[in-house]
Amino acid sequence: MIEKHSRKIIESPLLDVRSHSRDLLLALSRAAQAIQQAHTAVDFYRAVGDAIKPLGAK
Fold first, then answer.
1. DSSP 8-state assignment for residue 53
2. pTM over 0.70
3. Which of 25, 15, 18, 19 is nearest to 52 (CA)?
4. Per-residue pLDDT tens for 1-52?
């Protein structure tokens, strides 16, 4: 019982890191796609900003 509890304590932060890493990769992928379609510098910065906003960046 104690072993299961200890394992959950260790696994929980790892799952958070994996989830954040996955979200970051998806955001970068979306940004890359939007950047390829950008025609101006404003479009470029807007695409990058829109892609990272869901990650909590301000």
1. G
2. no
3. 25
4. 555 555 555 567 767 888 888 888 888 888 889 889 999 999 999 988 888 7
Tokens of 23: 């979200």
Handedness of CA 16, 19, 23, 25 (dihedral sign): positive
Closest C-alpha among 8, 39, 37 to residue 51: 37
- Reading the block at residue 31, the tokens are 């940004």
Nearest-10 crossing angle of helices 2-37, 41-52? 160
Q: SS3 sequence, 23-41?
A: HHHHHHHHHHHHHHHCCCH
